[in-house]
Amino acid sequence: MTEIDHYSILGVTQNSSNDEIKKAYRDMARKFHPDKNPSPDANAHFLNIKKAYDTLSSPSERRTYDAS
User: Fold this and answer.
1) What is the 3-state secondary structure (H, E, C) of 27-67?
2) Which residue intervals define the domain J in the entry (predicted)?
């Protein structure tokens, strides 16, 4: 199984601030939310975006992710 890079999913860098990560998440969520996007893949994209945001928006989870 290939590990998906959370930074790439959100289109941010490892040096991005929490505000930049939040903005990227909101932009991506609007684009791929299943209620707004009729694509059959929208739900899977949205779940990846949500997981990336949940990991990167938590300081402790982000440190653990960056260390791995």
Assistant:
1) HHHHHHCCCCCCCCCHHHHHHHHHHHHHHHHCHHHHHHHHH
2) 5-68
pTM score of the predicted model: 0.88
User: How many other β-carbons are positioned within 10 Å of the β-carbon of residue 49?
Assistant: 22
Q: What are the structural domains, with CATH classification, of the chain? A: 6-67 (1.10.287.110)
Secondary structure letter of residue 4 according to DSSP? P
Backbone angles phi, psi at 6, to 5 degrees: -60, -35
Q: Which amino acid is at 27?
A: D
CA neighbor of 3 nearest in space, from 52, 41, 43: 52
| Contact between 25 and 12 (Cβ < 8 Å) | no
